[in-house]
């Protein structure tokens, strides 16, 4: 049974967390089920929301990177 853990910056999805998570999990579930040839019910997906101040990339906080983008 595949288990997928998705970490995401919570501020990126804050405008519609349930809707975005549903779309992402659906696409991931469908892709894995099709690629492996198993029923969708056998694919488990979880989300971990990480605050943008607690996530770093290249030594910079994601909050700072998002502000400069």
Automatic annotation (TrEMBL):
The keyword Isomerase applies. GO terms for molecular function: isomerase activity. SUPFAM superfamilies: Tautomerase/MIF. Gene3D superfamilies: Macrophage Migration Inhibitory Factor. Keywords: Isomerase. Residues 2-63 form the 4-oxalocrotonate tautomerase-like domain. Coiled coil: none annotated. PANTHER family: 2-HYDROXYMUCONATE TAUTOMERASE (PTHR35530:SF1), TAUTOMERASE-RELATED (PTHR35530). Belongs to the 4-oxalocrotonate tautomerase family. This is 4-oxalocrotonate tautomerase. The lineage of its organism: Bacteria, Pseudomonadati, Pseudomonadota, Alphaproteobacteria, Rhodobacterales.
